[in-house]
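#struct-queue
[09:14] JT: dropping the first one here, sequence first, then the structure tokens:
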Amino acid sequence: MAGYRARLGFLVPPGNPTTEPEVIRLTPPGVSVHFTRMVAQGVTGSLDGQEERNRTQIAHLDENVSLLSMVNPSVMVLAHTATSYTLGKLGEADLIERIQRSSGFRFITAFGSVVEALRRLGIERVAVGTPYGETSTQQCKANLEAYGFNVVSIGRLAGVQNIYDETPERAYGLARQVDAADAQAVFLSGVGMPTIDTLAMMEQDLGKPVISSTAAMMWNALRIANVNAPISGFGRLLASPSI
């Protein structure tokens, strides 16, 4: 690893300006992070055409994985939660198995990382917030339920023109909007919506874990890369040991 304990590789949607700076800020010493842009057409970050863009990214994934494989990563991460909603539980499992077999590298998804994080924290009942349209939001709910979670509350961020124009403050407001008394945790879906700057404040104010797609995929990538590096200041998931 040429001086690094691990290399983490991320496959990022083409117009996403959020994931790289947030991941870099969460990277512990001794770990390097590497990014490849996926392929999609249309207005990136728009709610219109999201399903079509997801399917285009899936169709071109093999060539993107081939490029990212050149840095010899410890693990590769599909850094786009909504792609998992298009795939569904069985489709995602098939994709992961195929990519790992063809590339020879560990391959995980942002949504799969959320599932692992909720399980690690012992969460069964979850409140969910998304910056998506209604269709993708309902796909998110269906996927969580397919993994056995009880979605006790779900809501969408109002007035979204482009997911990539959103702010941590708006993400904070979404967490407060969807929280419910019987929810053991809040999940904010989407790596394009900035979340990490307000995760700790969300947890303090709501009194429960708040899991964002970005926090979960970073925690899971470090865990799979066998890097035990608690990261403070961004919520209890990242502050706990990764392995």
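[09:21] JT: and here's the second one, same format:
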Amino acid sequence: MRKKKSIKILPLVLFILIFLFVYNFEDIIGGTLFKSGFKTLQWDELKKIPIDLQKGLENSTLIFTDNSNIIVSANNQLKLYDKDGDIIVSKKINSHSSKVIGLKDYFAVIDLIQGDIVIMDFKANKFGEIMDLGNLKDVISIRNNIIVITGENRLQIFNEKGTLLSDVELPDGEILSLDLSKKENKIIITILSSDSENYNSKIITYSLDSNSMVGADNHYDSIIYSTNVYETSVMIVDSEGSHSYLITDTDNNIWNVKREGRLEHLTVDDNGNIFEIVYREKINNDKGQKYNYFLIGVNKDGGNIFEIGLDKKYDSISILKGRILLSNDKEAIIYSYGGKIISNYQDKRKMKSIKWLTYNRLLVEYNDYMKVFELVY
């Protein structure tokens, strides 16, 4: 009777592990150095994409990123690219689109003059539409909701299929900001109005379940930059700082953080964390360095996240999954929520904008082309 040959498992496993280690050596070492703070992520160019410039002076080429896709609208042509910069589809559209917005699972192309909104999936197939609304002041999206401000000063909310969910008449004035609660049953609107020749901001909270006002602060003295509504409270970022109060009690703050300096740019993440670029007159920090600009983080409970001196001026701030991107036309820098520099990048050519594609990919727009970059060890 023949003996069966035994397969020696341990040497085979060791061989596979050694092979994988050698094959991924650079990533393993790079990742270890990055996590230890000894190395930052580098910008690796993946793709250069020409831009079809909009003909005529009345419109410009629209470039938008959403759900890891790139959407370009110009000259009645819609082009979709994936996160690698490869084209998915090119399609003629009948509208001179003046805005593109992203939804949770779709995107919408909007003609603000005609009041036409076409909702599409990410292969440019039409999913829904809202037509002939007339001249629109603005259209924004919050998750899969489309929020329309009409020329008649009405606020209308539609779902991703174009079905009207709510219709509210607004007071006269310019809308500064608005937000929809996560349960989608409350909306907060900030309106700059003029009463008796005095300008002031009105903060109004509506219940969409009853189409009625549930909270208001009609004589707000500070300039309001951002408002966020939660189930029972409101968070405000204004010219004085940031604070929170109950919807039904505008006189008493839950917390209050006074800002030192002038607000330049801000963004608020989905969890209510506030990140600001602030200008101050030059002051000395503990190391004797002098800064004019600071990156400041405040959490949803009013606590300090960090305060970082910036050695130059940045023109924009955006966030994605715990990463904070600051940029100007020549340079970009990325911080973690812990305040550490993750990556920086400089370009000889003028950068018009930088947009997140994914956690590790960015789209940089130049005058007549755009580039997809990947952050690598």
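[09:30] RK: nice, looked through the second one.
[09:31] RK: The helical segments are 9-23, 25-35.
[09:31] JT: good to know. The two ends are 57 Å apart (CA to CA).
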